[in-house]
Amino acid sequence: MAATAAIDPLLLSSIMDEYTGDTDGAHLDGQGSAVFASGNTYTGSFKSSMMDGHGCYQWADGVRYTGELRANEVSGDGTLEWPDGAVYTGQLHAGLRHGRGVYRCARSAVRYEGDWVHGLRQGHGVIEFSGSACEPGGCVASYDGNWQHNRKNGRGRFQYASGNVYDGDWLDDVKHGHGRMHWRALHEVYVGNWHNGQPHGQGAYYWLKKSDDGREEIAKRARRNYYEGEFFEGKRQGRGTMHYADGSVYVGMFVDNLKHDDAAVFIYADGRVYRGAFDNDRIQLPSGGPAAAPGSSPLPTPGRPLPSPPVLHIDDLLPGSAADVEREQVEHVVLRHLAQLRELYTWYSQLGSGAARDDDSWLLSRLQLSQMLADCAVPSRRLDAAALLDVLAPACRHAAEAGLLNDLLPDPQQPDQTLLFRQFLEGLVRIAQARFALLHGSLPDRLSHLLSQHLLAQPPAVLQDRGALHERRRGQLLDVLAVRHQQQQPQATSHVDGDAAAGAAWLRDRPLLPADLADDSVWNWINSRQPALWPLYRSLSGCADAPTLRQLLRYLQEKRVLHGAVTFERLTLFFHDDDGSFDIHRALSFFDFVQTLANAALLRYNPNRHHSSTGTTAAAATLLVDALGELLQTHRLLLLPAAAGRT
Questions:
Q1: How far from chain centre, in Å, is Cα 451?
Q2: Which residues make beta-bridge pairs with 79?
């Protein structure tokens, strides 16, 4: 019985030889079975004499479709099965795979799940390659990303059977654009630009350890070799920077993976700097012959211990007349304690990093150094941990001035920034000079005092417990650094509330402040008077960034606050160093300013409470609020001084 409806050419031959099923008299309608002249068969739903609805169409060559048809056309959700065992399940349109679907290839063990357009992989999809069954989770290689015209195009991640992984841009099945390649067996990583499947353009190459698990960020937190610069057709070529695991650095041109430059810069592991020519990876001496760098090789051995004390760039700390003598004495102090300092550096560099006990390749971060200084009781009221970290900047600056290591310059907002061992040693010299500047003696004496009385006096109790770095200390340091950073920025009225919020968190954890001042109710009250306190603080500073202790004391004297119990000695007690001295010209932060006013209020209006630890926190807070309010009102401190910035 011949069908009266239109014939769909996509179904090969639709000339029907036989039909068995439902009709409405004039049309095929309902469920039925048809056999076509070509040998194709169909069993399923008919509507108006057309295959329409759910059914099963099988071609004479063995291909079978089960699913939805619309007006004699294979369109909708269904399953295509081939005689070799390949299967497609998903959406189709006009007889072609179109929309979302899953394709399983039996012979080549390939499974693709994703988008299709007119029979081709296009859009986003995942293809998996397996040695046996193509089931999810059983693949040995896979690609997850974008497709166009059956080819990998756009962003995608390819995991190879070897375990290597590429995550980046593709163009016509080739790595092209920006991407990251991780060679797992070699523990090497490249991140940067690609062209025709090779590193090309700007990029970074990292040589890691097995324990790093391919995390290239570890290269800058631990001693690893890594290169940052230009590539050409897979090789280092052009300008770049090579960082070696022992701390040495090369900056200059590369040709065919080798250092080759007439004006390169090489910083040795001990801090010395060579400026000159490199030819075929070796230093070119003025006589014309190649030679290795004295005391260090252009290709240093990772982890090689330093044979001599590192070069310390401390000319700015040494007096002109005795500079050479004091430098030699400082180097002698460092050399005498070099082994102990290296052990201290190594232990704290592992703290909180998850490093194994025998992994001494990690670099010390500013946060870990802060922990070390705190454990060894180095900070004081005059110089807290954040202030001590501020003096480290020159320990890195000499390299930056040579056009190197700009990323190692201390950043107030980056406590995880690392210091090389030589920078750590130089930093200790600078900390000793700043911390014990008021002690009699020379720079070597101050360094010896820092080492013998603090860092190396005895193993800190914390060294007995290799627990993780406390998050509270991280939070405290972040708060302090944030406040200091805000104080260095141009101030405006709109910044006041932000300073107060940061200050509240900072004050609550600062052990040097009276516990009363860290109470929320006290600080909230101070915040309510902040619009008047802040202009007073700024007016005292004049043209400077912050007022000095002397300027504040002079102002309090003029306002008759320094009287009776409020003596000069008592009010400055909180700024004294451990040796009993203090710097009257020190700049005051806004929080030092508030603390001084609070101490003056307690001394003048409630001297007994100032020295007593009895009473509840709420009662103590109330007393402090009352005392501070009385001080401000009685002495009219909120009236701005007539002449700002007096000394």
A1: 32
A2: 66, 89
3-state secondary structure of 596: helix
627 by Cβ neighbours in 10 Å (0-12 / 13-18 / 19+) ranks as buried
pLDDT of residue 533: 72
- Tracing tokens 């080798």 back to the chain, one arrives at 258
DSSP label of 451: I
User: Mind giving me the DSSP string for 43-108?
Assistant: EEEEETTEEEEEEEEE-TTS-EEEEEEETTEEEEEEEEE-TTS-EEEEEEETTEEEEEEEEEETTT
Cβ atoms 113, 126 nearer than 8 A: yes
Structure confidence by residue, pLDDT tens digits, 491-501: 333 333 333 34
Instruction: Write out pLDDT tens, residues 490-535.
Output: 433 333 333 334 333 433 333 333 444 445 555 566 656 555 677 7
Specify the DSSP element, H or E, that contains 520.
Answer: helix 520-528
- Find, among 511, 334, 523, the residue nearest to 430 by Cα: 334
**Length of the chain as a residue count:** 647
Asked if residue 263 lies in contact with residue 281, where contact means CB atoms within 8 angstroms, the answer is no
Q: Which one, of 293, 251, 248, lies nearest residue 403 by Cα?
A: 251
Q: What does the pLDDT look like over 163-206, one tens digit per residue?
A: 899 999 999 999 999 999 999 889 899 999 999 999 999 999 99
